[in-house]
Amino acid sequence: MRVSTEKTKKNRQNDRRAEIIGIAKHLFVENGFAATSMSSVANAVGLTKASLYHHFPGKDDLFAACVTEGLSDELLALRKIAEDSETDPKTRMRAVLEALYETFIFSPAGRMSPLIAEVSRSFPTVARAFHDDYMAPQHEILVQLLDEGVASGRFADIERKVYLHMVFGPIVTLSLTREMFATFEDLDQIFPVETLRDGHIENMLKLIGSSQT
């Protein structure tokens, strides 16, 4: 009974931690690092400031958790697309690229990238964790799919690092610029995600020898 009670308590603590991280991510993204206080997070979560400090010793620790935790679901979804052997490589590559746009432009995890750029010199270990735990696995997934397409004769044998930079560069840049000018009323006219995404993906497919049919 005691073991069961302790497990239940730990599960509640984990759920509460995940809830705090989820809400804090949105606050950091919307307000920036400097303008997001522990008090504002505590109020949004429905905790006292003292209770929030029980979960996270300081804002730096909370920010680090927002960057390094809760990324597994997005990576799992990406792997599921890439490893669907019943679907041809071209269709999977298109779906993976579309998913990358979705995560970097619209998900809280992807939208943290401008904040990483903002505080990377102050928190180099956080920036490293974001790269190693989030971006590097995405690179690996894309390379594995590219390798499969090359092996099957569907894709051209392009240099992998070049392809990765050509894929991720425009996506990350779009994410950064949209956050930079997020207050513009004509943001979607200046940076139309769907138009830019579709053109970019089509060019990436053509580059590896696969065009839309």
Question: What's a quick, concise take on this entry?
Answer:
By secondary structure, this protein is mostly helical. The protein has eleven helices and no strands. Helix 2 (38-45) packs across helix 3, helix 5 packs parallel to helix 8 and helix 6 runs antiparallel to helix 11.
Which terms would index this structure?
globular; Tetracycline Repressor, domain 2; about 75% helix; 2 domains; about 210 residues; 11 helices; single chain; mainly alpha
Describe the model.
With 213 residues, this protein is mainly α. The chain has two domains: 2-68, Tetracycline Repressor, domain 2 (Orthogonal Bundle), CATH 1.10.357.10; 72-207, Tetracycline Repressor, domain 2 (Orthogonal Bundle), CATH 1.10.357. Helix content is 75%, strand content 0%.
Q: How many domains is the backbone divided into?
A: 2
| Category from helices, strands and their pairing | mainly alpha
* Gross morphology: globular
Oligomer, anyone?
single chain
Question: Could you say what the CATH architecture of the largest domain is?
Answer: Orthogonal Bundle
Q: What value does the average pLDDT take?
A: 88
